[in-house]
Structure formats: C-alpha cells, structure tokens
Design brief:
globular, eight-stranded mixed beta sheet, about 20% strand, 11 helices, alpha/beta, Rossmann fold
Length: about 260
C-alpha cells in the first residue's frame, strides 16, 4: 500500500477536509499531493511559508535545502525560528517544525548549497521545485536544471517593498525566457535594501499555492506569467510572456528523459 493510500484514512480526511471540498483538489488531487516530492531551495523568508504550507497541505515528501544557520537579523521575517535557535541550521529546524505540524509528511534536509555539481543529487527526485533563495545565479541554475527535465518550478523573490513570483510548468515559458540571464550588476539584496516580514509571507504563500496547483493539475494559464506585487500600493501586476524559441534552457528539449 502506498503512502498516499494509507494517508487518506479517516484522520487524513479530517485533516485535509477543507481542501478536499475543493473541486480543484478533491480526493484525486490529495492523492497526487501525497505522492509528490517537492524541493524547497532556501529556508529563509520565502522558504519558511512555502515549506510550512506544503507540509500542511499533505505533500508526501519535502526536501529542504539551505546552507545557512539562523541569525538574529533573520527573525523579523523567518518566523519558524526562535531566538534560542540562533546559530543552528535552518534546514534541520524547519524540517522539525514541519514534522510537528504534519507527521504524515516525510522530510529530508540538507544543510548545503545548491551548486552546478550538487544540484543533480539534490533536485533529481523532485516533481516540483520552489526556488526561494535570494541569489539570482541560483535561480537561473535551478531553472536551467528543471526546465529540460520537465519539472514544475516556482521562483520567488522579495526585497524592499516589492515581490515577484514566476511559475514554470513542464514545457512552459521559463525564468530565462523572461529575463535572459542573471544581471551583469547584482541588484540590492535584503541586507542592503531591507524587507518587511509580511511581504515575504505573501510571496512565499503564493509560491506554495502555485506549487499545489501544479501538483494537483496545472491550468492552461499556469505558465508564462509573472506576478509582481507592490506592497506600498498594495497592488498586483501580471505580466504574460511567451516561450522564447532561442532560450538555451529549452534547447534540444527531451522532457522527462534527461538524467
């Protein structure tokens, strides 16, 4: 018996009852969630709500990746961590929080960085990947690994009073189609420009929502869209963009067949 079939017992039906009522989820969608593996790259301001919401929703296996330890200046926005945990590894702490929240979810943690040499071992098992780091180079690295392998991908970012989410379903227009490549001159980071905690909560929550939709069954409009949030004006802007036929991430695509 699979984990998914065991999961939908009476207690599970009660745990997930509110989302089971949704036509877009239902029992079939809940089983897909229970059978899915989601990788969260970055366990900071975005990764915390992403991982907690995916765990609460019943994603069967979560892989959390972050090389950093909790620092005092994280705690205004990374609300899964405690003051007494400063200096401890984020990935392990967040994994423990998810296990407390939903013991039916299997959690794997890696206190390491995603690099060109490590990404295959860390991300290969994923059905959907959530890129939650604050490093543009990592975002493109994850994009370029996931796109030719047909892995769903949701990329988020937030700094100052602005946030963005890009959803990339299998075969859809990707992050590189939209932006081309990392900026020649890196933009300001949260360390330089600051950020408000509720902003990363909003962006991370949207990332989790988009990932759940990808697992349960992506809509025709799931790709080729950037959601840009202006927190100062409390205003969303949607930008649609096409797949770039010259995008190297899509070159010689063999979706689902690459190692």
């Amino acid at each position: 018996m699979t984990v998914a079939l065991r999961e939908l017992n009476g207690a599970a039906v009660e745990r997930y009852s509110r989302q089971l009522l949704l036509r877009e989820v239902g029992e079939a969608g809940q089983l897909r969630l229970a059978q899915a593996t989601a990788v969260v790259v970055g366990c900071g301001g975005l990764g915390v709500p992403v991982a907690l919401y995916l765990g609460a929703a019943g994603v069967g296996h979560l892989i959390l990746i972050d090389p950093d330890q909790v620092s005092l200046d994280n705690l205004n926005r990374q609300i899964a961590y405690r003051t007494a945990e400063v200096g401890q590894p984020k990935a392990a702490l967040l994994g423990a929080r998810i296990s407390e929240l939903n013991p039916n979810v299997s959690v794997e943690t890696h206190s390491t960085a995603v690099t060109p040499t490590s990404i295959g071992a860390l991300v290969a098992a994923a059905d959907v990947v959530l890129e939650c780091s604050d490093d543009p180079t990592t975002k493109f690295l994850v994009n370029d690994y996931c796109v030719p392998r047909g892995k769903g991908l949701v990329i988020g970012g937030a700094v100052g009073l602005a946030g963005q989410v890009v959803t990339v379903p299998a075969g859809g227009a990707c992050y590189r189609c939209l932006f081309g490549g990392p900026p020649a001159v890196p933009g300001l980071s949260c360390r330089d420009a600051g950020v408000l905690g509720p902003l990363v909560g909003i962006i991370g929550s949207l990332q989790a929502l988009e990932a759940i939709k990808l697992v349960c069954g992506p809509s025709p409009e799931a790709g080729g869209r950037l959601f840009d949030f202006d927190a100062a004006a409390v205003r969303w802007r949607e930008v649609r963009f096409p797949l770039d036929p010259s995008c190297p991430a899509h070159g010689e695509r063999t979706l689902g067949n690459r190692p």
